[in-house]
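Title: Prediction job returns without error message
Component: structure pipeline
Severity: low
Priority: P3
Assignee: unassigned

Description:
Job completed but the reporter wants confirmation the result is attached to the right record. Sequence as submitted:
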Amino acid sequence: MSESSYRLAVIVGSTRDGRFAPTVAKWFTDQVARHGGIDVDLIDLDRHPLPVKLGGEPTAEDAAVLAEVSPRLEQADAFVVLTPEYNHSYPASLKTLIDLHYTQWRAKPVGFVSYGGLSGGLRAVEHLRPVFTELHAVPIREQISLHSPWGKFDEEGQHLDAAAGEDAAGAAKVMLDQLTWWALSLREARAARPYGA
C-alpha cells in the first residue's frame, strides 16, 4: 500500500431478513473503486453474527467471530458505517460491534452512508456520531443519505435515475475526498505520536 492509499473498513450494519443493505453496499463500494487509492474491506455483520450479551468470557463461537473481525478493524485506517434507520436510530447489531471494541476506533475517521424513509437514515447517523466521539474516533462532517431508496437501484447496485445517480455519486465523492484527507493525516499522526487516551 502506498503512502497515498489507505485501508477502509466498510461496515454493513443491517442483519434483518430481506434487508436492502447489500444493494447500498454494492453501490457504495463501486463509488469507492471509482475514487481510487482505497483498499476496501467489507465487513457485513450479517455474515459475522456477534454476541448479544456483552461482558464476561465469550463463548468459543463468539471468540471465533471476534478473532475474525477485530483484527480487520485494527488494520483499518478509516471506517464507513452503512446503516439503515430503525425506530429513529441504528441497528442493535451495529451497537454490539461498536461496544465490543475500543482501541480499534481511536484516532481514526468515520464516515456514514445511511438510508431510510423520508429522513434517509439521518437520525441513525446523529445517534452514531456521539458514540464514536466517545470512543476517540473522528466522525467526519460529510455523509451520504439515501431517501426512500427502494426500487431506485437495480440488482447491480446502479441507480435507475441518471440524474439522481449523479447527485448521489457527487455526494460520495465529496465524502470520500474528506475521509481520505482525515485517513492519511491521522495515520501519519499516529505513526509520529502514538495516540494515548
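Comment from assignee: result matches the submitted record. The CA atoms of residues 92 and 100 lie 12 Å apart.
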